[in-house]
Write a structure and sequence with these properties.
Two copies of one chain form a homodimer.
Chain A: E1 6-18, H1 26-40, E2 44-50, H2 53-63, E3 69-72, E4 83-86, E5 92-97, H3 111-114, E6 117-125, E7 128-136, H4 149-166, E8 172-178, H5 186-195, E9 198-199, H6 200-203, E10 207-208, E11 238-244, E12 248-257, E13 275-283, H7 292-344, H8 348-398, H9 406-413
Parallel strand pairs in A: 1-2, 7-8, 10-12
Antiparallel strand pairs in A: 1-13, 2-4, 3-4, 5-6, 6-7, 8-11, 9-11, 12-13
């Protein structure tokens, strides 16, 4: 690498709102997205909610000349909805499907069936190793009474851990996606604190787009305005986050966000706004490692907060499992009773009529029980990982001389 | 690190056969395992099939003085069964649960309910970063007609990918566990070729244990001899695998395997044999990168073989999904017909009697459909990753000058 080395990276991110049969003007929007991406020729285009593989294949064909490399991340029953198009060869890719992702019986929300995940691409650009991640976390349907909060925090933690453990040799780390988290939400703070990623919107000096960088705005004709009632300006839930290792300096030169209209035709590409960032990576002398005590405080406090949230979710999961266990037991008793009545021949028709709902009750409650046992285990696992990191962060705060872990390395490596 | 640096690592691995209520003499064996581990004082003890968390907690208490660090990897409904005890502090840990792990309707096999996984520990020993992995893959119930083969190959691939992507900054990589794979099985070759891990049994000059290093032997009183009918000496399915980065040399000084009897009391600790390896890590001058063409051939051939296996599994998964889709449709038609008959009042009792099995049919076939759609997606995902690696390996073989990828780095880094 030459001393005056500099790498310019143009990145595009969009939650495409591509639900077959449900999303309005899907085919037209996908076509216009393809035209737009071809015109702009980004280095990387990272997309979410491309639920139909046909849409991906259509884009792949259309974008082939400008983006020779592409990948669709398959998972779950419906899919992860994630895909990428790259101007540069993709060296490697893999994915991690989140352990917890809502409830199968919340069919109208559908997240559980999607297999939400984080996709990883490894690219080699100008002698640098770039790890690019694309993700989409569980949606937030009710901010006041969010039954998915613990799952989203667990997903943010798994995402942070996946990045932490897979990016140790990367020079530049990039994360794009729809986090379904507001900037000050617990999951977002946890992710940033543990990975050390920087927020393009907060870092750039040249931002053009809706006020406060919102990526779901009331001006967008596809947005349900009722959902934004409490947020007259809109909400910011889509992100471009990045970091570079020590010796490199990464900055966001410009960040553009669509404003409810497609830049050229005026009609929006999705119900979310697209993010277009120009990042610049260049040499920088390794900086002084900031005081760990000072650095660790926000990490410790956010870890504590996340621990409490996961703990509460775990208790709730166990409670539901217990209730479901009792209901299963009662259902089995009822079934035995019905069998006896039917055999006795007394109220045979009633017994036969009640047979179906009883079997349904046993099977339903049994499945509910198993699901919540698994949920509690998943939350317990995340809590254990978090607790370990918390313990080590506290040790390091108390005895800065005992700085042994990876986290120190990571911190030092951030620009 | 001093030039005459040398690290000695004593590692223990055992599949503990700890199924509550089912495994014979479980409490006694766990107690004796604890005594043995305390006596021997290994650096790391990696255990599989510790299905009961109470067993883990019992061992944790018992081993606390000799192994101050421990972790139990929770996942799925029952758990992963994996746990570790370490003499040295654990810097970090995380886990990856395999996407595919058998079929929920094969209740008597139970693997699906376990949430089989790979656990990762990061340790800092003598200035080196050690990534230790522990895993347990899907069991093989019928070697002649193995319906889980595609799943096990997919698991071996996910395991290899997880190690590949999380160990890029590790100086030493160690993998222990019950792979449920014979040494020449596709999954085992795939894992070794893609990660570059070496097999302690094949590498050591000082082995003591059953012939051919078998880890399930007919001499063990807990082993079902019928299962070993075709293998009079036993089978080797538990492994200690390792590698080190360039500049380091790792070797297996000694490998001891129990021989169907516990070393002291004579009664076996489990139906599997325990592996005890003494590894030695020392400095070594970076070696010449072996000819990539020569190196790549076995990788390409094993990738091709795995691709074909996953492809076949995928076709089968899709076939089952199609069948289940039709059955669901037929079940719905039958339900509609029964409703009409019951409303007409003609053969009401028969209609009511058939109601339960019809609802069961629709729900069962529907769940079967969703499961196999997800299975096909999971296999398709693994196949896509594999295909990409295969493409790049072929490119590199055809044009050795175009060596761009990680794989080269990995190869060069192995001792």
């Amino acid at each position: 690498m030459k001393p005056n080395f500099s790498l310019r990276l143009r990145v595009f991110n969009l939650n495409c709102w591509g639900i077959p049969y449900l999303s309005k003007h899907r085919a037209d929007r996908v076509k216009r997205l393809g035209d737009f991406l071809n015109r702009e020729s980004f280095d990387l285009a990272l997309l979410e909610e491309v639920w139909s593989e046909q849409d991906f294949q259509y884009l792949r064909q259309k974008l082939l000349p400008a983006y020779p490399a592409a990948h669709y991340f398959r998972s779950g029953i419906i899919g992860s909805g994630l895909c990428v198009f790259s101007k540069h060869p993709i060296q490697e890719f893999t994915q991690h499907v989140f352990t917890l992702n809502g409830y199968p019986y919340m069919i109208h929300h559908g997240d559980w069936f999607c297999g939400k995940a984080v996709g990883l691409l490894v690219l080699h650009l100008g002698g640098l190793v770039l790890n690019a991640y694309v993700t989409h976390l569980h949606a937030e349907y009710n901010r006041q009474k969010d039954i998915y909060l613990a799952h989203r925090v667990a997903q943010a933690w798994e995402l942070a851990q996946f990045i932490h453990h897979t990016s140790k040799k990367a020079d530049v780390v990039l994360l794009c996606g729809d986090l379904n988290l507001h900037p000050k939400d617990l999951g977002c703070r946890l992710l940033k604190e543990w990975t050390g990623l920087h927020d393009a919107f907060l870092e750039t000096r040249d931002f053009k787009g809706p006020e406060e960088g919102c990526t779901m705005v009331p001006e967008n004709c596809y947005v349900n305005r009722q959902e934004l009632e409490q947020f007259p300006l809109g909400i910011r839930i889509d992100y471009v986050l990045y970091k570079a290792v020590s010796g490199l300096y990464i900055s966001c030169k410009t960040l553009r966000t669509t404003t409810g209209h497609e830049p050229h035709s005026g009609s929006p590409l999705s119900d979310h706004e697209a993010l277009m960032a120009t990042l610049c990576v260049r040499h920088s002398p390794p900086q002084h490692n900031p005081s760990p005590t000072h650095e660790r405080s926000p990490l410790i406090s956010v870890l504590r907060e996340a621990w409490a949230e996961l703990d509460q979710g775990m208790a709730q999961g166990r409670w539901w499992a217990t209730i479901a266990g009792y209901v299963t037991g009662l259902g089995l008793l009822l079934l035995a009773l019905l069998c006896a009545l039917a055999a006795g021949g007394e109220i045979r028709e009633v017994a036969v009529l009640l047979w179906t709902p009883s079997v349904g009750l046993v099977l339903g409650a049994g499945a509910f029980y198993l699901f919540h046992v698994q949920e509690a285990k998943g939350l317990c696992r995340a809590r254990a990982e978090l607790q370990h990191v918390l313990g080590r962060a506290r040790e390091a705060q108390d005895q800065p001389a005992l700085l042994l872990g990876q986290q120190e390395g990571d911190r030092a490596e951030e620009q």
